[in-house]
Hints:
Blueprint lengths: L27 H12 L15 E5 L6 H13 L5 E5 H4 L15 E5 L8 H16 L3 E6 L11 H9 L1 E4 L5 H14 L6 H10 L4 H18 L5 H9 L2
Amino acid sequence: MAEFSQLTLSVQLPDDETFESYKSESNGVVVAQLKQFLNNMQNESNDVHMKKPNSFYMFGLSGIGKSHLLHASSAYVAKMDKTSVCLSCSELKTLPIEVLNGLENINLICLDDIQLIAGDELLQQAVFDLYNRVVEQNNFLLISGDHTAQQLCITLPDLVSRLLWGYTEQLKPLNEQEKSYAIKFRASQRGLVLTDDVIKFLLNHLNRDMKSLITSLDLLDNASMSHKRKITIPFVKEILINV
């Protein structure tokens, strides 16, 4: 058995990015399918006719929660006593290719933003090789990207083919009501109380993708504690709008 890479990885996951905190009725079917894919790790079969796909590719626009769902999946399988690792391809591009050596021995490997390796032939080959090793070990791959596999500009046809082997699902953008609900839920997890007027102000005056909104929420949380002030519209203007 190959040894797990000893190179340093940034594997600390946000503890508030779980399936429970992903609030999107529009993507309920995708989340259900993803959970079933992960549950297959518990129901391994040696019967080739009963085998389920070992990979799941989900795609969608930036800021709709792909990274959140990768982190949620890691937290989910941890409760099954399964191992996992999440790697962003933006981080992967800065590391030696050898960082992928031995990852096939982990139960779930999550690769975020696969489109970022489109111009790197060596890294594409390394991910393709990892994919094959993972399948041989009967472990699982969860991969995210911003377009369908055929539209990723991946130049290695075999890697595109692998992405199409397993489950493929598209995430839809959250509507305003879903964003509002998600912000209020994430705020409550931090012990914050946001009025509907404050949430509406955030949606109308800040970047509307969830990643930016949650980053803004983090800033407001820290500023609120530092200044010992409630989060009101004037406070939001002071902390965020004038930055």
